[in-house]
Design brief:
eleven-stranded mixed sheet; alpha/beta; Spore Coat Polysaccharide Biosynthesis Protein SpsA, Chain A; globular
């Protein structure tokens, strides 16, 4: 085993991390790949393997930030770093800083001309992903953000589906991202590093401990550039029964929605009220989403409670407000093929 050296990265919020440094191979790193990681010791190896196995005529580095995993993910990551010391740099935080701050800290450590992301439950199934995007970006110097089609992988059922990237071009690009009129996979994207750093304030992502790192960056970047799509499938988005961004617990889900509220307010302030973000409307939306979660959990008592707290009216609120409709709703779920 090669002996690793240890450095300390220190963000503006005084977040310390111990870093296993890759050995400098004497070549300029062209592509940096960021993996903001927390737990998922069972899937992160597949993520790393899919990056290392890329067939690309360029140097790459993999920056992995482990946000105080509670399983044995750190051991898995340390083993990969020892096996690939010229490729992998590992950031180990001393306390949990959150997904947005983890991503931003990793981005700050990148040296590449281009930056890609791959979360620790996603992977790249196309071994030419980096080469295809590199060729396009090098031949299109005005392209700052490039994405591709992707697949979804339901890890519970094993089902894999192909998905086309989509952006509603009837709207201004930033409005399409703000309104959720897009279907984009974070693991497919390649950024031009200088452009990303010029427009996304990474220190804000760190100091605010944002729960999100992708959608908020897209809303910001879409104000300054187009998002181009390469019509080829390259990455697989892992779907789990529950995750940091898709919690099933009431308290965790409410916390997630409150964190989303903080991100939305930040973006609205950043663009001087362009999105007319209304905190009261968001609180009403929170009650509605909590009601939807309760219905999904077959919890009529809480569904009824949350339904009484929202002004939103549709078939779901009507179901939650009527025990008869709720019983019919449950019956339809049971007989649905």
């Amino acid at each position: 085993m090669n002996e690793t050296t240890t450095n300390t990265y220190q963000a503006d919020n005084k977040t310390d991390s111990k870093t296993y440094n890759a050995e400098n191979c004497g070549k300029k790193v062209l592509i940096s790949v960021v993996i903001p990681s927390y737990n998922r010791a069972d899937t992160v190896g597949q993520t790393i393997d899919s990056i290392i196995e890329q067939e690309v005529d360029a140097d790459i580095e993999i920056i992995i930030g482990d946000d105080c995993s509670t399983d044995n993910a750190r051991e898995v990551l340390a083993d990969y770093q020892k096996r690939f010391p010229k490729i992998i740099r590992l950031l180990l935080y001393e306390h949990n800083i959150g997904l947005g701050a983890n991503w931003a800290t990793c981005i700050k450590a990148c040296k590449g001309k281009y930056i890609c992301n791959c979360d620790n439950d996603d992977y790249w199934h196309n071994k030419k992903k980096l080469q295809l995007q590199l060729d396009y970006m090098e031949s299109h110097p005005d392209c700052n953000v490039l994405l591709t089609n992707h697949r979804t992988h339901n890890r519970s059922t094993g089902e894999i589906k192909e998905c086309e990237a989509f952006i509603d071009r009837t709207l201004p690009l930033q409005d399409a991202f703000w309104q959720g009129k897009t279907h984009v996979c974070n693991a497919t994207i390649m950024y031009r590093r200088d452009f990303l750093l010029a427009h996304v304030n990474l220190d804000d992502f760190i100091s605010h401990h944002f729960f999100l790192q992708d959608w908020n960056a897209w809303v910001i970047l879409s104000a300054y550039t187009d998002f181009e799509i390469l019509p080829v499938s390259t990455a697989t988005f892992g779907i789990e029964t529950a995750s940091i961004t898709r919690p099933k617990d009431y308290d965790k889900y409410r916390k997630r929605l409150n964190e989303d509220k903080k991100v939305c307010k930040y973006l609205d302030d950043l663009f001087q009220g362009k999105f007319h973000f209304d905190e009261a409307e968001w609180d009403d939306y929170t009650s509605y989403r909590m009601m939807r979660l309760a219905l999904k959990k077959n919890d009529y008592k809480n569904a009824h409670l949350f339904a009484r707290q929202t002004k939103h009216q549709d078939k779901y609120t009507r179901t939650a407000n009527s025990r008869l409709l709720y019983c019919l709703f449950r019956l339809m779920k049971l007989i649905k093929p």
